[in-house]
Amino acid sequence: MYDNINETFVGQDYLRKEVVPGAFLEYTYNKDDRFVVVAGGRADFHNLFGLFFTPRLHIKYNVTELLIVRLSGGRGQRTAGIFADNMGLLASNRQWVINGNGGQAYGLQPEVAWNYGANLTWGFFIRQRDATFSLDFYRSDFMNQIVVDMENPQLVQFYNLQGASYSNSAQAQFDFLPLERFEVRLAYRFFDVKTQYTTGLLQRPFVARHRAFINLGYKTLNEKWKFDFTAQWFGAKRIPSTASNPEAYTGTCPIA
Questions:
Q1: Domain ranges of the chain
Q2: E strand or H helix that includes residue 69
Q3: Which of 19, 61, 171, 231 falls between 20 and 30 A from 222, CA-CA?
Q4: Quick count: other Cβ atoms within 10 Å of Cβ 242?
Q5: Spacing of C-alpha 107 from chain mean position
């Protein structure tokens, strides 16, 4: 991989070239299509950040024909592009402050995370009609992260993580065919995403902890007509601190 990046922000040039040769190896074990393991790994040498490894493991086990369990885990690393990743903040009237620590990209170190996941999918019948219930849980633990700190309403600060940062995501989904050609899908997702800021370990702003989803779909016998209805609900989101604003422009957040 080769990237030649030339960015200019408020008269300051941010230039870097990334050259990353690497090798990838993957092994698949399949026993009767019931138990499948896919193990892989990459070894890359980054011209700015040196040698790094990104292993990955996927496991699928068919407990029965209708019950499937999946597990996954691995490591990831990337060089964050703070301007491209946060384009919307250019309209926030905040002063941008980059608190580098000697890294080779904006003075910052690359992002590194370990992630894990599990899925259970169960197919069954309700009054002889198909139904599916699934549960998902995924977690990411950041060893390093570019923190986007907006807890001061006059600033947006970028710095490398000092402390804990993690993301937990859990979802339950139910699919059912109550009538011929009529499908119902219900889902609920819970997010627990926290990052260590200079002011403490806080819930990530603008991320709803609770979300719900419903989809109803119907198609005519010849499939000439299809009808679809979708609704989503998002729970409360934390907003960054506004405590240092004038009193008329301060607000409170329902999520601590």
A1: 2-249
A2: strand 67-78
A3: 231
A4: 15
A5: 24
Class of domain 2-249: mainly beta
pLDDT of residue 125: 95
Q: Is the distance from CB of 221 to CB of 168 less than 8 angstroms?
A: no
What's the predicted TM-score (pTM) here? 0.87
Contact by Cβ (8 Å): 154, 164: no
Tokens of 213: 């989803």
Q: Token match 């499948």: residue? A: 36
- The mean pLDDT values, 10 residues at a time, for the chain of 256 residues are 94 94 97 96 96 97 97 96 93 92 92 98 94 98 96 95 97 95 97 96 96 96 92 96 83 53
Dist. CA 165–CA 144, nearest whole Å: 8
Query: 191 φ, ψ to 5°?
Result: -115, 130
